[in-house]
Every structure is written in C-alpha cells, then in structure tokens.
Design goal:
It contains 21 helices and 13 strands. The two termini are 34 Å apart. Helix 1 crosses helix 4, helix 15 crosses helix 16 and helix 19 packs parallel to helix 21. By secondary structure, the protein is an alpha/beta fold. It is flat and about 85 Å long. Helices cover 55% and strands 10% of the residues. It folds into 3 domains: 85 residues, Gyrase A, domain 2, CATH 3.30.1360; 256 residues, HUPs (Rossmann fold, 3-Layer(aba) Sandwich), CATH 3.40.50; 177 residues, Isoleucyl-tRNA Synthetase, Domain 1 (Orthogonal Bundle), CATH 1.10.730.10. The structure holds arginine (ARG). Arginine binds next to helix 12 and strand 9.
C-alpha cells in the first residue's frame, strides 16, 4: 500500500534537507479530520532552524506547493498556526485499501520482522497447583503477542516455563509417601495434590523432622534419585493433562514445554560464571548477589543455605540457554507485576553472565495487573481459588443462556456459545492497558452492546448477514472509488488502512490492548456506517461499493480478533 506519511515526509525532506525518517517520526494524525489527515508540527524544527513555527510552516508550504500539486496522493496542504495540515486524496485511499484487501490472504501480514527472533515466556502454571486466573492473563497476553509478532514476520518461540521444580516437590513427595493411598490423584490430580500439599505443609510446621525429610527429598530429586524422579514425573504428567484442558479451550500452543526442571543440570555453569566474577557472596550460608549498587535493596539468592537452587538461578540458566539456542532479539516474560522485583534482579545479575549486549537489551518483563472481582481481590491462596476450567465453562454456559434467549433457533449453539464465552473472557483480559488491574464482572464482559468481545463478534456477524442478504461479493476492480468518499465509509477505510501500523505499535509496547481498542473503533465505525447508510439500494454501483466495504470491514475484524485469540462465529 502507498505510505501516505512517507510520501509527505519525502516532500518535506526535499524542501528542508532534513532526513525523511526523522520527518516521518514527527508526522501526526490529527484527531479532528477538519485539520487534515496528517499534520506536520513545525515546532519540531524550531530549534534547529532558529525560527518560530508559523514562520517555518509558511516557508515550507511555499517550497512544497508545486510538489503537492503534482502528487496525486495528496489534495492540498494548509497552514494552521505552527502546523502544516495535509489532506490526502480520498479516492486514492479507497483504491489503495480495497486493492490491498483483495490481494492479501492474511490482511496485515508483513515481513518487517524477518530475521529476528522473539522468545515469549508465558502461561507457566505450577505443577500440582491450580491454574489460576493470573496464569490465564499470562496465557492470553502472551498468546496474542505471539500471533502478532508472527504475522509481522518475526520468528517467534513460545515457551511454557512450567513451575515443575523447587522445594515444594520435596514436600509433595513426602506427603505422597505418607498418605498417597488415601487420595485419588489420577482422577482429580490438581485438587488431590493440593490437599496433600496443604496437609504436609501443616505437618512441616509442627514437625521439624518432616520438614527435613522434605528438604532431603528435593535434594534427592536434584541428584536424580529414581523413586523421587518417578513420582515427580507422575505429578507433572497428571498436572499437564489437566492444564491441557484449559489450553484446548483457549487453543493455546507452545513451541517448548521446557519448565524449570529442564535447567537443573544447567545451573552449575551459572554458579561457576558468577563465582568467577567475584560478586557471589556468602551470606548466612547462602550464596547471594548483592544488588544495592544497582539500586535494588533485596539481594538475589543464587543458592540457599542447604545447597538448593532457586527460582532465580533457574531463570538465569534459562537466559543463558535461550541466548545460545534461539539467539533472541527480544526475550519477553509475561507475568503479573508481583514479579517485578524478581525480573529486575535476574536482569541485573544476567549482566554478569558475560552475554552479548544484544541479549541483555532484549530482556523485558511484560507485566500485568491483578484480576479483581467486583467484590474485591480474587485470591489465589488456599480456600478462595477460582478454578480456571470452571470459570471458562461458566463463560460458555452463560453465553449459551444469552443465545438461547436472543436466538433460540440458531444451529450449532454449542460451538457458538464456546466462541462467544471464551471470546468474552479473552477480550476482557486484553481490553485495557495490561498494567491496569482488571475487573472481572460477568454482566460487563458478556454485554453484546458494550466494548466487549461479543460486541466485535456481533458486528462481524452483521457483516456476514449483509453479505448473505446481498447474495454476492462484487469484484474489487469493479468498485467505483468515488462511491466511498462519504464520512462513514472513509472512517472505516482509514481504520483499515492503519491496521498494520497498529500491529507494529503492539509489538513496540508489547501491548495487545492497542489492537483491542482498535477493533472496538472499527466495530463502532462499521455500526455507524450500517445505521447511516442503506447498503442494498437503487444505485447498483453504490450498492457494490458498500457491499465490498462490508466485506473488507468483516475481513479485518476477523483477522484482528483471531490475532487476539478470539474465534469469530458466522452467526450468533
Ligand atoms: N511459574 C511462575 C508463576 O506461576 C511463572 C514463571 C514465569 N516465567 C519465568 N521464566 N520466570 O508465577
């Protein structure tokens, strides 16, 4: 597609001797289209040129007027204070967008990421513990980023860094040894293992000997003891079976399931490297890295006093491993903001591992806020856990009830209820900037008229039913561009034009909500167009144009929603 911004920048570049790229970065999109489609803020050059912005605007305008006249992409340029406002040629916009829609199978696809490797560490639930709502957010945010990087041409590696290691396994093994036969862990693994865990934990608090036995089990596990390893594998497999039920509902995929345990034999190297730097200190029998000079008060514990390794050491080994194996340009970690300190620490300590600058720069914690119920915090502690599988099934159930009310004769109700229910939960997770805490309220997330997943699906279904009613999709080359230059059509076309830029912005900030907001805008723009215009009408050319625009809007809504992990029903 023609790049309007770049065309404007190159014209200004000729007149000012300032680099095109720099100018491109300065060009803005005015909120109100009265001020043009693109605007150049001349104050950006005021310092360099030592002139007032309106003076600069006048001078540039004079110099570029001829070029603007000749450029068929741009109709005119006007001065407004210190701004140059550019008005693009509407028919060129229409032609460009429709053409791109017609020729691209996957709208938005690009190769700008070619040759770059992005590692995304997400989901990462803990074995033998419930898959909770925080893991859901991680799974959904990480999954959306995965797809968006991918469509932009990056080589993406999705890693599920399972919590399958650590001292808690010593406890579980001990609990199982004592009472294994009382619990049916095959039937209901997570619940039963959680019960064992709570019970052994309580016993540990009373009995020092039991606690020591647990610690011993973990040491044995680290040393490859057969009995302990077999039990550990059993717990892991059973837990994974349950997690997969959630992944099936969400259609989550991972390229690697290397969890914490995978790094058990890779930690000695980390400790060795750290030892050589002379920064590894003894503190009450433990080995730590002091980070006070780096402005972090809490030291990073590398080895506990009993010789066991830590969550942090495993993450350091993972950084080393991933840099070698994937040569990453970015390594993203999607977890709640509760782990901000952890990642600050390990990113600091990683600087001591002798890695290339590129890897250190690529490390990024993509943190997100809590999920709150309208009544307060959704606790992940014992007793008040909301099981994710139950939550997703409830979403499907509720969606089904709504469909039952609105459209009782719909075929395929089960499948559609699944798409709507899951879509609602996913969209809610991505609707607002990720660092914000999220409120989980059933009525809000399933509201077909709100800023929700179901609203986007509903709008998409509307485009489908328009196309069905029309009975045909016209050929793109037969569309007369002048039929789509009204305010409502243009609004849709401009949004469609922006799609790829939106995807790029998502990757720049690792913020999928930029795409969610965009899809709401697009759905709203289509709704206004639909309400204001007759699509099936007397003027055949106008009808063709509007049907085609409907098709285009539907196509982009679907691509965008799919990138977020939301499936689109054809009817609802
Ligand atoms: N298992 C951890 C948790 O549930 C998340 C792991 C995130 N990834 C990492 N490399 N530390 O909190």
């Amino acid at each position: 597609m023609k790049n309007f911004k770049q065309i404007i920048a190159s014209i200004i570049a000729k007149a000012t001797n300032i680099k095109e790229q720099e100018l491109t970065d300065y060009i803005e999109k005015p909120k109100d289209t009265k001020n043009g489609d693109y605007a150049f803020p001349c104050f950006r050059l005021a310092k360099e040129l030592k002139k007032a912005p309106p003076v600069i605007a006048n001078e540039i305008k004079e110099k570029i007027e001829k070029d603007i006249e000749q450029a068929k992409e741009i109709d005119k340029v006007e001065i407004a204070g210190g701004y140059l406002n550019f008005y693009i040629n509407k028919e060129t916009l229409v032609t460009e967008v429709l053409n791109e829609i017609a020729k691209s199978e996957e709208y938005g696809k690009s190769d700008i990421g070619n040759g770059k490797n992005i590692v995304i560490d997400y989901s990462a639930p803990n074995i033998a513990k419930p898959f909770h709502i925080g893991h859901l957010r991680s799974t959904v945010i990480g999954g959306a980023l995965y797809k968006i990087y991918k469509i932009l041409g990056y080589n993406v590696i999705g890693i599920n860094h399972l919590g399958d290691y650590g001292t808690q396994f010593g406890k579980l093994i001990e609990g199982y040894k004592l009472w294994g036969n009382e619990y049916d862990i095959e039937k209901d693994p997570i619940n039963e293992l959680t019960k064992i865990y709570i019970r052994i934990n309580n016993l540990c608090k009373e009995d020092e000997n039991v606690l020591n036995a647990c610690r011993d089990n973990f040491k044995k596990l680290e040393n490859g003891d057969k009995y302990c390893t077999e039990l550990w594998e059993k717990f892991r497999n059973l837990s994974l079976q349950e997690f997969k039920k959630v992944y099936d509902l969400l259609e989550s995929k991972f390229d690697s399931w290397n969890g914490e345990a995978f790094y058990s034999d890779k930690m000695p190297e980390v400790i060795e490297i750290l030892e050589k730097t002379g920064k590894l200190q003894e503190s009450q029998g433990a080995k730590i890295i002091n980070l006070e000079e780096q402005g972090i008060d809490t030291p990073c514990i590398i080895e506990k006093s009993n010789g066991s390794t830590t969550y942090a050491t495993r993450d350091l080994a993972a950084i080393l491993y991933r840099s070698r194996k994937y040569d990453f340009d970015k390594a993203l970690y999607v977890t709640s903001y509760e782990q901000i300190l952890h990642f600050k620490q390990i990113f600091e300590v990683a600087k001591l591992l002798g890695l290339k600058e590129k890897y250190i720069k690529g490390l990024e914690h993509v943190s997100f806020g809590m999920v709150l119920l309208p009544t307060g915090k959704m606790s992940t502690r014992e007793g008040n856990v909301i099981k994710l599988q139950d939550l997703l099934n409830e979403a499907i159930q509720r969606a089904k009830e709504i469909i039952e009310q609105k459209n009782p004769n719909l075929e395929n109700k089960e499948e559609i209820a699944k798409q709507v229910g899951i879509g609602a939960v996913i969209f809610n997770d991505l609707a607002n900037s990720r660092v914000k805490d999220e409120i989980f309220d059933w009525d809000t997330i399933l509201n077909f008229q709100g800023e929700t997943g179901p609203y986007i699906q509903y709008t998409y279904v509307r485009t489908k039913s328009v196309l069905k009613k029309a009975g045909y999709i016209p050929k793109e080359k037969d569309i007369k561009p002048d039929k789509l230059v009204d305010e409502y059509s243009l609004q849709i076309l401009k949004l469609i034009y922006d799609f790829q830029e939106i995807l790029i912005q998502v990757t720049e900030k690792n913020e999928p909500s930029i795409l969610s907001r965009y899809l709401i805008e697009l759905a709203k723009a289509y709704s206004s167009f639909y309400n204001e215009n007759r699509i099936i009408c007397e003027d055949k050319q106008l009808q063709d144009a509007r049907i085609y625009l409907t098709y285009a809007a539907g196509k982009v809504l679907k691509s965008g929603a799919n990138l977020l992990g939301i499936n689109m029903p054809n009817e609802m």
